[in-house]
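Quick one:
INPUT:
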């Protein structure tokens, strides 16, 4: 079934007035007709069956049933990643959405290459659409939160819950792997994975993160690209949490 997002202000009782973008997609691309059934997602976890009530522009849909709300992940998993070039960001947003990441934090660290502020400028709306399209594809009712570009210092000091498990991936970690801490994952209120740029984190960055409670974690003998490391780490964490 085709899925579409709406915001609360677009709802008038049982009627939802879709955005111009979604209306165009339904009418001109999918060519759906009056009376056909679609699925609506309210960005807060709500899922509804609705029929196309009026072929106006924007389209009016009538909610005919509320579906059982799929429970959100009991342990949120956030990802902070440094130095991802704009051309690779789309893949990261797609895969992190599909894997159930709650929050995505791009940040700048010492060894980032190029001007990320310039690369990311003006792309937020496109990236938001990519996240929503990924949600539609995988049936996720609530989009992943994409945060603004931050510094390493700000992402290092962020603490959104009382007992976060904060893990920083480091290729020079001699022994501790994600598998080694699998039994402690479910004790956390949330998990944050921090992934460095090409060239990795500096020793000074690792020391400063460790001083405020981050644990260094390795991903085996191979040095992975940031994109590969993110997908692998999230998959392993979600597996141990029973969320994948």
């Amino acid at each position: 079934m085709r899925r579409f997002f709406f915001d609360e202000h677009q709802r008038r009782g049982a009627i939802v007035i879709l955005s111009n973008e979604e209306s165009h997609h339904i009418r001109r691309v999918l060519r759906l007709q009056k009376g056909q059934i679609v699925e609506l997602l309210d960005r807060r976890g709500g899922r509804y069956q609705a029929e196309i009530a009026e072929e106006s522009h924007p389209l009016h849909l009538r909610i005919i049933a509320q579906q059982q709300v799929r429970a959100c992940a009991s342990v949120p998993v956030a990802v902070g990643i440094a130095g991802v070039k704009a051309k690779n960001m789309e893949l990261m947003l797609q895969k992190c959405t599909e894997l159930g990441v709650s929050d995505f934090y791009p940040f700048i660290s010492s060894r980032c290459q190029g001007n990320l502020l310039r690369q990311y400028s003006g792309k937020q709306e496109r990236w938001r659409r990519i996240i929503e399209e990924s949600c539609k594809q995988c049936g996720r009712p609530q989009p992943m939160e994409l945060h603004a570009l931050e510094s390493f210092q700000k992402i290092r000091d962020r603490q959104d819950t009382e007992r976060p498990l904060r893990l920083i991936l480091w290729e020079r970690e001699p022994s501790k792997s994600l598998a080694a801490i699998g039994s402690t994952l479910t004790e956390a209120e949330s998990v944050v994975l921090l992934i460095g740029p090409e060239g990795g984190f500096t020793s000074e960055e690792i020391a400063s993160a460790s001083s405020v409670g981050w644990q260094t974690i390795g991903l085996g003998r191979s040095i992975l690209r940031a994109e590969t490391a993110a997908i692998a780490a999230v998959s392993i964490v979600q597996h141990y949490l029973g969320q994948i």
